[in-house]
Amino acid sequence: MEKWSLMAVTVLLALTVRWAVSLGSYSGAGKPPMYGDYEAQRHWQEITYNLPIRQWYFNTSDNNLLYWGLDYPPLTAYHSFVCAYIAKLINPDWVALHTSRGYESQPHKLFMRTTVFVADLLVYIPAVILYCFSLKETSAKKKASTCALCILLYPGLILIDHGHFQYPLSLGLALWAVLCLSHDWDLLGSVAFCLALNYKQMELYHSLPFFCYLLGKCFKKGLKGKGLVLLAKLAGTVLVSFAACWLPFGTDVEQIMQVLRRLFPIDRGLFEACMFSSPTHCPDKVANIWCSLSVLIKIKNVISPRTQLKLSFAVTFLSLLPACIKLTVQPSLRGFKFALVSCALSFFLFSFQVHEKSILLVSVPVCLIINEIPFMATWFLLVSTFSLLPLLLKDELLLPYAVTTPAFLAVCLASFSILEKTSAEDLQLKAFSLSLKGYVSWVKSFPRIVRSLFLLSLALMGALSVLSAAAPPPQRLPDLFPLAVAVVSCLHFLLFLLYFNVVILWDSRSRGQKKIS
């Protein structure tokens, strides 16, 4: 009973923080003609409610795709329709065709914010709670609640979902999929992940670890016996799940092709929004390798869009290949969670058309291993939030950022004593450090070096945050501070990618599936 009381207090605190953040501004507030992501979500409700399904993804006189046209899979559209149906009952003006464009009012803001709260309460938060209770290391009553508190107070997700404005459904469904696999409910986990993928195509970041882990389990069981049966069941489950999601579009091949063209607009080139026309100007700053390199090399002017696509695919594939091979050959739940982090980070750094918010696809899997490597997980989550700073400043979310980020650090310091967990063993680097012991003299000083780098990193992020918020940039370099944030974050992420791959490849421990407590 006590553990549930502690968890209830944790959830109440997490909801209070979300409510406080939601009182502030949102993406594109009062900024016509395009407004922002808040208007995009409202517009999708308008379109899905007023137009027949066959017109949702097509450019028509009633559906101008240049004005926030639907570019997410069918489940997002269905969710928008459900929200629109409720909105219509409250105030038809909120979803009136054409005339509701750019609609802004306090009652409507309350409604939209409430829909995000409901999604959090029904999907994301329950998955976090059950996941924390499922961890073997959290058998003590206090541990599960403290782990959940750190995950639920991760500022990046709160600021984007309840500040900037988006729904946590795809990440929540992916969490449910991980939870199901931790129970050995592989078919149910496959359904949950298919739903996540059919809500947002960016869940492809997580697709290879799911595929490799389940394929590895089939190999382990033997492809001439139980493994083959499991493989057939998984394939059937995936096909049925996708068929159910795409059923309204399945009667017309052109419908399916148009949806796919909207989901994967490869003709735009390598960059989603971070298209550097010069070293001094960039409309949106993404902390990945292509945007960082474009400060020095104008990639979009040197390489054709098709070559950009091939280069991006090759580098992404090569960077995630080691972790995927290891997971397929030695499938374990622990390896699966680390592979989720490594593969998602590879996609974020090297893949095609990356948005700054996509770092959340890396951060949520990092939250899942915060109990195993609290120091590195906390460090990564702080950097990921910092990488969102240009977007948050644009949305006038400086105050929530300045409050939630130090608060998160304080909670992690109190919950896990992270500064005391910097040894090679604490960082899951014992096997790697032993292999270097005879060649590198600084192995014994490793904990002190890591702590010093962490404090230096915090100081640098703090200084750039203050400069970005308070100091006017040089006249000749108006985007100096956002570019600095992107490049510094990218360098951090490259080092984190190296670290996570080392942990994965040097981990020789054979761990079975963790059972629910």
From TrEMBL:
Principal cellular location given in the protein's record: endoplasmic reticulum
EC number: 2.4.1.-
Entry keyword Glycosyltransferase: yes
GO annotations of cellular component type: endoplasmic reticulum membrane
Membrane topology according to the record: Multi-pass membrane protein
Catalytic activity: an alpha-D-Man-(1->2)-alpha-D-Man-(1->2)-alpha-D-Man-(1->3)-[alpha-D-Man-(1->2)-alpha-D-Man-(1->3)-[alpha-D-Man-(1->2)-alpha-D-Man-(1->6)]-alpha-D-Man-(1->6)]-beta-D-Man-(1->4)-beta-D-GlcNAc-(1->4)-alpha-D-GlcNAc-diphospho-di-trans,poly-cis-dolichol + a di-trans,poly-cis-dolichyl beta-D-glucosyl phosphate = an alpha-D-Glc-(1->3)-alpha-D-Man-(1->2)-alpha-D-Man-(1->2)-alpha-D-Man-(1->3)-[alpha-D-Man-(1->2)-alpha-D-Man-(1->3)-[alpha-D-Man-(1->2)-alpha-D-Man-(1->6)]-alpha-D-Man-(1->6)]-beta-D-Man-(1->4)-beta-D-GlcNAc-(1->4)-alpha-D-GlcNAc-diphospho-di-trans,poly-cis-dolichol + a di-trans,poly-cis-dolichyl phosphate + H(+)
InterPro entries hit by this protein: Glyco_trans_ALG6/ALG8
Subcellular location per the Swiss-Prot or TrEMBL entry: Endoplasmic reticulum membrane
EC top class named in words: transferase
Lineage top rank: taxon: Eukaryota
Transmembrane spans: 110-133, 145-167, 173-197, 227-249, 335-352, 359-386, 398-419, 453-471, 483-506
A molecular-function term among this protein's GO annotations: dolichyl pyrophosphate Man9GlcNAc2 alpha-1,3-glucosyltransferase activity
Stretch forming the signal peptide: 1-22
Keyword field: Endoplasmic reticulum, Glycosyltransferase, Membrane, Signal, Transferase, Transmembrane, Transmembrane helix
Pathway, per record: Protein modification; protein glycosylation
PANTHER family the UniProt entry points to: DOLICHYL GLYCOSYLTRANSFERASE (PTHR12413), DOLICHYL PYROPHOSPHATE MAN9GLCNAC2 ALPHA-1,3-GLUCOSYLTRANSFERASE (PTHR12413:SF1)
Family, as annotated: Belongs to the ALG6/ALG8 glucosyltransferase family.
Record's function text: Dolichyl pyrophosphate Man9GlcNAc2 alpha-1,3-glucosyltransferase that operates in the biosynthetic pathway of dolichol-linked oligosaccharides, the glycan precursors employed in protein asparagine (N)-glycosylation. The assembly of dolichol-linked oligosaccharides begins on the cytosolic side of the endoplasmic reticulum membrane and finishes in its lumen. The sequential addition of sugars to dolichol pyrophosphate produces dolichol-linked oligosaccharides containing fourteen sugars, including two GlcNAcs, nine mannoses and three glucoses.
UniProt protein name: Alpha-1,3-glucosyltransferase
Organism in which the protein naturally occurs: Calcarius ornatus
Gene expressing this chain: Alg6
